Request: fold
Amino acid sequence: MPTYQYRCSECGHEFEEMQTITADPITECPNCSGKVQRVISGGGGFLFKGTGFYITDYRDSKYKEASKKEKDSALPESKSKDKKSNTSDKSTKKTDSTKSTNN
Reply:
């Protein structure tokens, strides 16, 4: 159901009203009972409230998997090697700390 915007020509009061398309326009101001006119408005469009609304949020799982594979293959070799070396560093740090606590 569309929302129509009205403005009173006497008191300047502006208000919106949800009406069916076939309904007659409102002619009387609810504030002062003066004459109102329907105002042309841009409409509401889409309102996204909250965080994380992206075009890819509702993609199917096959698309997401293919996209992930494509991203992983696009990484340069040096970055993927750095990730592997960082994980091996973490494992040696854990073993070093366990050795010092056991002594």
Notes: The mean pLDDT is 75. Strands lie at 3-8, 14-18, 36-39. The first helix runs from residue 61 to 74.
